[in-house]
Automatic annotation (TrEMBL):
Annotated InterPro entries: AMP-bd_C_sf (IPR045851), AMP-dep_synth/lig_dom (IPR000873), ANL_N_sf (IPR042099)
Source domain of life: Bacteria
Annotated AMP-dependent synthetase/ligase domain residues: 119-275
PANTHER family referenced in this protein's UniProt entry, alphabetically: BLR5969 PROTEIN
Protein name according to UniProt: AMP-binding protein
Length: 407
């Protein structure tokens, strides 16, 4: 039994990078055939976008903006050149956001994640993600079938009927949320039903703390995590090394300072931005609103792609202070105006029954003049007054948080 899905997973990182960016210009040309991308990327020469540095100069498209964009120009906001009928399936997610599924094999790129979790050709898989209108069930269904597995399209709920299917078909694999896997195992134990055939699982869509991982293992199920979205499918997945998550092939993943499109320093926490290389439905610098950090070095499993720590919270930290919104983009703008500063964190509290702001800013050498200048910039950018506290370099936690609402 091979340890890797294919040779792409063990390529030299420089070879992978060169291959991705050799494909990117043509994908950009395809993207710019759609009116919304033509507008967003106006003035861009696709042939010049052949490196991460060049890509970082393009604007980001925020997932949080998609519902309004899709409503204004249904169904895809003008970001897809082809007609809805050119796709295989058409879904919706809360927002609403409208998502098409391509006609190619493994359109959501999930077979690798299942393989890394121990799934193999000929396995029977119980898929408990929802099949109703949203793409979750079909993401894992298509991925398992691309790997050569047979799929039980169970969906969530109705444990009694699921027990019948499990006892008849004896699935070795499970895909679904970790919460429902625990519900299923607990209910089977209470009812005296035999679900012992399930030996491995790929879970997503909810937190999977170490305590729950250990509980699943004690009950005979080796469970691995995957990180994905309804727009992109599987973005990163856990491997046998249990060292963060490996980024999927055919994706370019960046980590940027929240509220900007600027890459973070290596190892810093920031917002996930993904560019996909599907010319039929490309995503160019889609900012997901999720935080993570890159891990250094190569994985012990032998896969050589970039690794991330996994989901570390939300990047959209917008809050309201004295009736006005304060956004991460504004804190980033303060940093741009004062390049001598390091990490910034705006702490929002209550003082005397009123909202209060304190901007904590790292700097190598504190000075009264700098403190005064930064306070003036804080007021100019946010239209709100606040105090500034200069702290030593490395004093603020590396957690991606730029606005901390402590009220």
């Amino acid at each position: 039994m091979t340890d890797h899905y294919d040779a792409l997973e063990t390529r030299d990182p420089a070879e992978r990078e060169a291959a991705l960016f050799a494909r990117l210009p043509e994908v950009l040309r395809k993207a710019m055939a759609a009116p919304a991308y033509a507008n967003l990327l106006r003035g861009t020469d696709p042939a010049s976008i052949t490196s991460r540095e060049a890509l970082a100069g393009l604007p980001v498209l925020r997932k949080s903006e998609l519902p309004a964009l899709h409503k204004a120009v249904p169904p895809f906001g003008g970001f897809v050149a082809d007609t809805p009928g050119s796709f295989a399936r058409l879904f919706t997610s809360p927002g609403p956001i409208f998502e098409p599924e391509g006609r190619q094999a493994d359109p959501w790129r999930g077979a690798r994640a299942l393989f890394a979790a121990g799934f193999r050709e000929g396995d029977v898989v119980l898929n408990t993600f929802s099949y109703h209108l949203t793409p979750g069930g079909f993401i894992f269904d298509a991925s398992a079938r691309a790997l050569g597995c047979a799929v039980i399209p169970a969906g969530p709920g109705n444990t009694e009927q699921q027990f019948e299917l499990i006892e008849a078909y004896r699935p070795v694999g499970y895909s679904g949320t970790p919460d429902f896997l625990k519900i299923l195992l607990d209910a089977a134990a209470t009812a005296g039903r035999d679900v012992s055939s399930i030996k491995r699982a790929l879970v997503s869509g909810a937190a999977f703390p170490k305590s729950l991982q250990e509980e699943m293992k004690s009950r005979g199920v080796e469970a691995y995590q995957a990180f994905g979205t309804a727009d992109l499918g599987l973005i990163a997945f856990e491997t046998a090394a249990r060292e963060g998550m490996t980024v999927n092939e055919d994706l370019i993943l960046e980590i940027v300072k929240p509220g900007t499109g600027d890459p973070v320093a290596p190892g810093d926490v920031g917002e996930i931005v993904v560019t996909s290389l599907d010319p039929h439905h490309p995503w160019i610098r889609l900012a997901l609103g999720d935080l993570t950090a890159a891990l250094p070095g190569a994985s012990r499993c032998g896969r050589t792609n970039m690794r991330i720590k996994g989901w570390m919270g939300r990047a959209d930290q917008t809050t309201k202070v004295k009736g006005m919104f304060v956004r991460p983009e504004q804190i980033a703008e303060i940093g741009r105006r004062h390049p001598e500063l390091g990490r910034l964190r705006l702490v929002v509290t209550r003082a005397g029954e009123a909202d209060a702001m304190t901007l904590r800013a790292e700097c190598a050498s504190a000075a009264d003049a700098l403190q005064s200048d930064v306070a003036a910039t804080l007021r100019a950018v946010t239209k709100l007054g606040g105090t500034v506290e200069l702290v030593g370099t490395g004093s603020l936690p590396n957690d991606g948080k730029v606005i901390a609402d402590e009220r």
